[in-house]
Each structure stands twice: as structure tokens, then as C-alpha cells.
């Protein structure tokens, strides 16, 4: 079999697999998670809570950059969490326009519940990955990075 034929077949298999995984992740993002007290939060809301709790981003601008989504999309989630009592908004010292986010007691409670769920999921995921050589996992990470770069070129319309 010709080398270009193998590359085409492998590339096609990778693309189909990524599409299937993406669809499944999209389904997960639509599922709400019960955090007790008859309250449910969506993964997008939990990502914001996690970001604030771990100081990955405590402003709309920082989270927009971190998650790779618009400030408007982040603002919508932030406002929902504020209205539900999970977040506090404070003006940043010296900059009346910028809002600094922090968790309320209710927000911290949700974070700790979510953190336990994540730990459980990670343990299960590690179980699935057990037996795969570290070198192969590093190669996979490198390949996924290349795929992300390739997709970024389409998003920037460089290949169309």
C-alpha cells in the first residue's frame, strides 16, 4: 500500500474519532450536575467557579482568554452565577471598569462538591489510561497540539 494512501486512511480515522469525541463532549456540556439543595449547575458554570477558586482567572477578560471564548459568553455565565448567589463582583482598585470575581460561601460549597466529582472522574480516567506507555501519551499530547494548531488555521481562514 502506498504511503499517501496510509496517511489518508489514518488521517480520516483521526478526523472521525475527533468528531465523535467532540459530539460526546458537547453532550456532556449540556448535562447539569446536582450540587445539592435541589440546585444544578452546568459545566460552563462549574468551569467559571473552578477558574475563580483556583485563581486561573478572576475577571471576565482573563477567563475569556483562558477558555478561548468571547467576553460576552463569559459574562453571561458570570451573571447567572452572580444571580444564583455563587459569585461576588467587586470593582478592581484603581480601575472602576474592571470587575474582580470571587466565590461566595455557596460558591465555595459548589466548588468542593465539583472538586470531589472531578477527582472521581480523574481516577476512572487514569484507570482507562493505565497500561499505556508514558511515551505514547506524550506523543498523543504532541499530536493533539498539532491538530489544534491546524484547526486554528481554519478558524483564522488561513487555509480557505
Automatic annotation (TrEMBL):
Name of a matching Pfam family: MarR
Record's keyword annotation contains Metal-binding: no
Key words, A-Z: DNA-binding, Transcription, Transcription regulation
Residue ranges constituting the HTH marR-type domain according to the UniProt record: 11-149
Molecular function terms, GO-annotated: DNA binding; DNA-binding transcription factor activity
PROSITE patterns documented for this protein: HTH_MARR_2
InterPro entries named among the record's database cross-references: HTH_MarR-typ, Metal_resp_HTH_trans_reg, WH-like_DNA-bd_sf, WH_DNA-bd_sf
PANTHER family: HTH-TYPE TRANSCRIPTIONAL REGULATOR PCHR (PTHR35790)
Protein name: MarR family transcriptional regulator
Amino acid at each position: 500500500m502506498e504511503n499517501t494512501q496510509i496517511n489518508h486512511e489514518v488521517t480520516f480515522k483521526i478526523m472521525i474519532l475527533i468528531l465523535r469525541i467532540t459530539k460526546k463532549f458537547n453532550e456532556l456540556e449540556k448535562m447539569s450536575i446536582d450540587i445539592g439543595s435541589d440546585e444544578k449547575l452546568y459545566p460552563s458554570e462549574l468551569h467559571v467557579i473552578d477558574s475563580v477558586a483556583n485563581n486561573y482567572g478572576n475577571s471576565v477578560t482573563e477567563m475569556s482568554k483562558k477558555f478561548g471564548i468571547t467576553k460576552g459568553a463569559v459574562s453571561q455565565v458570570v451573571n447567572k452565577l452572580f444571580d444564583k448567589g455563587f459569585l461576588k463582583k467587586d470593582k478592581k482598585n484603581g480601575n472602576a471598569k474592571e470587575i474582580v470575581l470571587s466565590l461566595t460561601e455557596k460558591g465555595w460549597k459548589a466548588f468542593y462538591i465539583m472538586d470531589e466529582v472531578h477527582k472521581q472522574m480523574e481516577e476512572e480516567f487514569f484507570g482507562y489510561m493505565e497500561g499505556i506507555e508514558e511515551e505514547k501519551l506524550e506523543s498523543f499530547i504532541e499530536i493533539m497540539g498539532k491538530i489544534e494548531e491546524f484547526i486554528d488555521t481554519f478558524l483564522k481562514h488561513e487555509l480557505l
